[in-house]
Known about the structure:
By secondary structure, this protein is of the alpha+beta class. The chain has helices at 2-29, 78-89, 96-113, 143-150, 154-166, 228-238, 276-283, 314-322, 327-334; strands at residues 62-67, 72-77, 130-131, 171-175, 178-179, 184-185, 221-227, 253-258, 264-269, 272-275, 290-295, 298-304, 312-313, 339-342. It has 2 domains: 51-211 and 308-342, no CATH class; 221-304, no CATH class. A 3-stranded mixed β-sheet has the order 2-1-3. Helix 3 (96-113) crosses helix 9. It starts with a helix and ends with a strand.
Amino acid sequence: MRWWINLLLSIVIIVVVIPALTVQDFSLFGFDDRMPPSETDWQPRDEIDIKTKSPKSVENLEVTVYDHATKSIIKMPLEEYIVGVVAAEMPASFELEALKAQAVAARTFAIRKMRALGGSGCSSHPQADVCSLYSHCQAWISDEQQKKNWGSDYATNHEKIVRAVEETRGYIMTYKGTPIEVFFHSTSNGKTEDAGEVFSHSLPYYTVVESPGEENSPKYKQTFTFSNDQFVKIFKSRYPDSNLSAKNLSSQIKIKSYTKSGRVGELIVGGITVKGTDFRYLYGLNSTDFKFKFEGDKVIIETTGYGHGVGMSQVGANYMAQQGHTYTDILRHYYKGVDIEKYR
């Protein structure tokens, strides 16, 4: 009989507990760390004047969302959607001005994606403008999920986020009159990353800027440990022609270059040159700012920062807000040369 009990407990953990923890993680450490888009996903629209396609008022805008939690398509007013994004992407405990910066970033992302305005929509779900998966579009949670996440703090947290959205209602970031391509991340290594180091194209408003005050972030420093055999197995799963061997592993790994922000640009592993971004995703690391330690039959990788590093650091935004900066200060710091204007 005991094995039946163990089986039942395992099913409960897999079906109920793990998904709940996954969703809760967004409300605690919200972040955007979308995978680098392929050439087909990346569709610059700088030559399109999206404003000319807009309705007379932002109040008329509706966005179509694919909700991964319910596996359904939902259509809702844009500003209502932004509330769900901010609730999923940034802790409600953050400063109001940081939440407002997040709201503007989220609104800009959505408007640039909306098919009715000339956007490309969600490439994974063609019937939707955006999806709720943070690693593809941007995270979004329903009002019901917010209640589950926050419990007795729901009313306070929800009111604060609604205020952040309402006080920035309709505002987006533009560059030369066009909504920008939006990227943001959880925690930097003290500097942001140039977009060209991560994605297939550089963009003028993404440069390396200082981002102080992040050292106390929960994921500022993390350690990942692999056995030598495990490290080699993972690498050869992607690069089967590599001559990487578990013996004398330290002599087979060398950092080839660093980016201007201090992250790994390229490294040589087993005679093969690998981009830092590819290596990061292969091993599930928090960032491309990583260092190696070799102890016996173990490889220890220490990371600094959490996310791709491009655009606004959410923890950095909160620090700026704590220092008295407004949401416009924050956005203009992380997105160089942009205008913050009301969509119309």
